[in-house]
Structures are given as C-alpha cells and as structure tokens.
C-alpha cells in the first residue's frame, strides 16, 4: 500500500509528478483556450470581480500566498490572502464583486468552512480549490476547481500542496483569459511551462539521496531558518512548517529582505539557514537574495542554498548547494518545495519520529 516506501508521506512526495500532471489534464483545450469544467461562474460574473480574497489554513494558506503573486501579475486584480481562522472576526469588506477563494485539501476544515459561510452571507461568490470530491467546502461553494492529487494519507500535506498550486495557476490564467489581461499565445506558453513541471519534479526526486544525506547530518539541530523572496517566500514558510510538524524542531521562514529588520539577531555560529534562491532574471531578486545570504553567512550561519542549474554566482555563498531545474520565478515553488519536503521527511525519520502521524496533529481539523 505504500509502494515499497516506509511512510505514506514519502510515497506521496514521489507521486507528485503524476499528481501535478493529473491536475493539469484536460484543462488546456486544443484551440489553446483554458477550460475549467467545474467553474460554474459565468464570464460576466468573473469580469465583474474587482477583488479576490483567498482564505485557507496551514499549508493551504501558503499555496494562497503563492497564488497572490500569480493572480496579481497575470490579471491585475488585487488579492488578499487571509488565515481562515481570522477572516470573519475582523468584519471583512465583502460584496458581490469580491471573489472568495477557499483552498482546502480535505474540504472539511472547520475554520475555512465557517469563513466561506460568512462570505456567502455577505453575497460574495465563493470558489473552492479542493482535493476531496463531494466534501463540505465544495458543496457549499458556488464553483470549484478540483485538484487530482488522489487521497493524501500522510498528515503533512505534500502532493495536496503542489496540486493546489497548479489549481491556483489555472485559476489565475483562466481569469486572465476571461478578463483579457493576457493573450492566448502567452497563456499557452505558460501552460507549456506548467506541462513540463512533472518531468522537472521527477528530476528533483531523482537526486533525493543528496537531500537525505544532508538531512541525516542535522539530527542534532535544534533550530533552522528558511529564507525566500517573492514566490520563494511562501516556500520558505512551508519548508519551516514541514520541519516543525515532523521533526518537532524550531523552524521559521522569513522573507529575506526582512532579515535586517529583526530576525538576523537570531543568527549564531553554525545555525543552518535554508535559502530558496530565485532564478536569475531582469529584476533584482536574485542579487538581493545573495546579499541576504552573505549577511547571515558573515554571522556564522551555515547556508544550504536551493538554486537553479547553471547559477554559478551562488557557489561562493553556499555551504551546501541543492540544484533546481530552471523554471520561471512564479512557477519555482512547484520544484523548490520538493527538496524541503524530502529534508523534513528524512530528518524526522532519522530522529525516530512517526512521520505519518506526527504528535498532536490530525489530518482534517473539523473543530474551530
Ligand atoms: C500541513 C497541513 C495542515 C493543513 C491545514 C489545512 O502539512 O497538512 O497545515 O494544510 O490543516 O487543511 P486543509 O487543506 O484540508 O483545509
């Protein structure tokens, strides 16, 4: 049942190329247009939307943070991302022109369910991104994009997260198509890049042993920091959450630019810092990330850098280098999170923890 793996989680990490491919299947029609079968909102309703609020918890919330970068960039519609547990207690400003997007792997998370009920009472349209057919959240939503990860049994979300990212990209591109903010050729080009991601994830997985060795070298570690920028920032948060959940060690993710505003005080000799390095591009993200890495290194941190193939400029600053396939910055989370999942899974295994059933956690959280 675990396909020869020791844990469901590890099996599910290795299923990710297929889960991503399945979640893309049938969405890109031959005429180049995107189609989302369960998108029960009309083009006119979508054109009327002038604000999006994404609500979710935990790992699904981090998928929402990535979605914000993609949706705003491709559609120019402002996006807020909010923890479902906070949403209805702050009297959020909602009306019929606000689209609320609820992201939930299980479709049963109580905080998220209560949040969408609140949104619908305020006459907002609700779209669910969900992995569980017929669960409560999609049943109570106006529209749904189902992810096709297959059942996720490990308590820590892995393939659920990757397929949520895919659904968020599809939603962003679909909105761009309907609103006319991006044209067919460009959308098709991004779809082709997405369709190449399963092979690129497989390439990352083929080098799992390198990550495992690195993880096992950290069994005595009590604290790990994760740094990222742009779409790599939520990846840093997710990498830290995986480590907390599975290895029970203190782990925190930061936006690299925020370091000097406080967190750099945490850095001391030998502290492992995992850095998600953005691809080299015309923006200054890459250079800015390198200067953040230099800052922590100058204070004694040991840097583990995830950087794209061919990026030699990172070499002087990396105590350890994990190579990522070359993909555009907005899509990089799909490949960058995989080594972080492997790292947490292997480190927790080496520490003797139950990876599939971490202490104090449940697979779906049906109480608020
Ligand atoms: C982390 C994890 C949790 C869930 C969160 C939301 O590995 O699994 O943080 O992501 O409880 O669950 P869903 O997506 O089912 O609403």
TrEMBL record:
Predominant localisation class: cytoplasm
Residues at the active site: 363
Q: How does it assemble?
A: Homodimer.
Show the coiled coil region(s). none
| Enzyme class, broadest EC rank | transferase
Q: What is its EC number?
A: 2.6.1.16
Please write the reaction equations for the catalytic activity of this protein.
Answer: D-fructose 6-phosphate + L-glutamine = D-glucosamine 6-phosphate + L-glutamate
Keywords assigned by UniProt?
Aminotransferase, Cytoplasm, Glutamine amidotransferase, Repeat, Transferase
Compartments it resides in: Cytoplasm
Question: From which residue to which, out of the full length, is covered?
Answer: 247 to 614 of 614
User: Domain of life of the organism in this record?
Assistant: Bacteria
Q: What is this protein called?
A: Glutamine--fructose-6-phosphate aminotransferase [isomerizing]
In UniProt terms, what function does this protein have? Catalyzes the first step in hexosamine metabolism, converting fructose-6P into glucosamine-6P using glutamine as a nitrogen source.
Q: What residue stretches are annotated with the SIS domain?
A: 42-181, 214-358
The protein's GO terms of the molecular function aspect are:
glutamine-fructose-6-phosphate transaminase (isomerizing) activity
């Amino acid at each position: 049942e675990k396909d020869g793996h020791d844990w469901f989680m590890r099996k599910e990490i290795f299923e990710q190329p297929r889960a991503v491919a399945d979640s893309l299947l049938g969405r890109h029609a031959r005429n180049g247009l995107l189609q989302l079968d369960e998108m029960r909102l009309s083009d006119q309703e979508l054109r009327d939307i002038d604000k999006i609020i994404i609500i979710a918890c935990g790992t699904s919330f981090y998928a929402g943070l990535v979605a914000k970068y993609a949706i705003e960039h491709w559609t120019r519609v402002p996006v807020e991302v909010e923890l479902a547990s906070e949403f209805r207690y702050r009297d959020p400003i909602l009306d019929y022109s606000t689209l609320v997007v609820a992201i939930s792997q299980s479709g049963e998370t109580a905080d998220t369910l209560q949040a969408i009920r609140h949104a619908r009472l305020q006459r907002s349209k609700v779209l669910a991104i969900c992995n569980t057919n017929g669960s409560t959240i999609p049943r109570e939503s106006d529209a749904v994009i189902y992810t096709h990860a297959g059942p996720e049994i490990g308590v820590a979300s892995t393939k659920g997260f990757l397929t949520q990212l895919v659904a968020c990209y599809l939603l962003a591109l679909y909105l761009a198509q309907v609103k006319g903010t991006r044209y067919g050729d460009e959308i098709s080009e991004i779809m082709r890049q997405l369709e190449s991601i399963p092979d690129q994830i497989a390439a990352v997985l083929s080098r799992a042993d390198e990550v495992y060795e690195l993880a096992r070298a950290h069994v005595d570690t009590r604290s790990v920091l994760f740094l990222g920028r742009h779409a790599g920032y939520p990846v840093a948060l997710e990498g830290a959450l995986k480590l907390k959940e599975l290895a029970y060690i203190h782990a925190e993710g930061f936006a690299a630019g925020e370091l000097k505003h406080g967190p750099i005080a945490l850095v001391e000799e030998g502290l492992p810092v995992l850095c998600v390095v953005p691809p080299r591009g015309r923006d200054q993200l890459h250079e800015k990330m390198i200067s953040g890495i230099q800052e922590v290194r100058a204070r004694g941190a040991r840097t583990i850098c995830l950087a794209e193939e061919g990026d030699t400029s990172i070499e002087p600053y990396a105590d350890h280098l994990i190579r990522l396939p070359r993909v555009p910055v907005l899509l990089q989370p799909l490949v960058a999170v995989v080594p972080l999942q492997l790292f947490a899974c292997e480190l927790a295994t080496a520490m003797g923890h139950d990876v599939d059933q971490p202490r104090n956690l449940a697979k779906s959280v049906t109480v608020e």
